[in-house]
Structure formats: structure tokens, C-alpha cells
Amino acid sequence: MSEHGLSVTHSGHAPTGARPEPGASADADAPQPVFYFDLGSPESYLAAERVMGELPVVPEWRPVHAAGLPAGGSGGAPADERRAAVEARAAAQHVQALRWPADWPTQDTHLAMVAATYAKQIGRAVAFALAAFRQAFAGGRTLDQDTLLIAAAACEMHPRAVLQALGRRSVAAALDAATAEAAAAGVTQLPAIVAGEAVFEGPDAVERAAAALAATFGAASA
Predict the structure, then answer these.
(1) Candidate CATH numbers 1.10.12.10, 3.40.50.300, 3.40.50.2300, 3.40.30.10; the one for domain 8-213
(2) C-alpha dist (Å) from residue 93 to 5, 48, 96, 97
(3) Which of 50, 16, 10, 73 is nearest to 133 (CA)?
(4) pTM for the full model?
(5) Average model confidence (pLDDT) for the chain?
(6) What is d(CA 188, CA 21) in angstroms, rounded to the nearest whole number?
């Protein structure tokens, strides 16, 4: 990992449970890529907006708590450098201008990631994550309980069920387990895409993972 948050690719241990969905890849024996993210990470937000369109195989979205990763999953770059780099990348992606939450980058995202973990458990990981990311970085809203309920409503998650999940120890434990699994797989910063034992992480993780996976699946189908 770079001391200044630069993207890196390295080998780790393949995460458990990452098997391909039916019809998702050209190689039935290849593991399904796993997209690791934290809702408080603007780099993860930009990756989330394009990962489904750029990877040649559908990834599994797996929420993790960045605070449980080295350097808080940010790569150790100063906040002002991260902000400038993210704004430049957003402009290059033609994403609407970012609005920064007032508490970024010091926010505690644990509650948000518990909500994202619950969303994953009920099959709403992608829809909820995109809604919450947009509330945070397109709307400039703090990821507090009210914002999480707005995001949940956007993907038809019942508010009472969400509130109950936020206080459920089993959901928090599932988040802790996913974070520990990401670290064991070699993830040090977010966003990260793990494909087998290859770890692509940092701001351009999607592009590098897409290129590697295209080569892999292209060779498999040749």
C-alpha cells in the first residue's frame, strides 16, 4: 500500500463465499469478484457508480467498516489531498459536483455500515448503498439515522425493520466478520475489488480490476 493512498494491486487470500452467480462469468470455476466499500468513503462512492458497468462479471457488494482496516481504509492520504483527488475524478467521470458532508472525514460510519449489512442480508445491498452514497456525496448529508432511513425508503426497506436491525447484535457481528475477512484477504484501503487472490484497491481499482478480469474471462472463453 502506498503511504499516500495511491492505488495498489497485490495478492491476498480469496474471501469466503465469493462464488459466481449463474451466468455471471465465462468460467464457472472462477470466483465471483467481491466489491468492498464503506459508505463514508467518497472513493468508494465513485467506484460504486461505475463498477457494475465496467466489470465483465457481476461483483458481490460486501459492506465493511473502514475503521477496521489499516489507516481507516483511506490509504493514509491527508483529507485535503483526498478531497482534491476525488473532485478531479468525479469531474472526469461526469458525476455531478460533490457536496461534502459536514462531518467528513471524521464521521463514524459504523451505524451506516450496519444498515448496509442488513440491506445485504435482505438482498438490497446495491440499491441501498447507491441511495446512501448519493445522499452523502451528492446531497451532502451526514450518514445519521434519518439519512439512512431516507436511503432505505428509496429501495423499499421498511423503516421499522431497519431501526430494529440497527440495534441487532447479530447484524453488527456480520459487519465485523466481513471487515475481518476483507483484512485477511489483503484489503488495506477502499474501494477494493478482490478476485480470487488478486486485490485491486484504491481510486482506480475498478479500471484495473476490469482490465484483469477481461483478460481472464477472455482467455477462458477463447
Answers:
(1) 3.40.30.10
(2) 20, 12, 9, 10
(3) 50
(4) 0.87
(5) 89
(6) 26
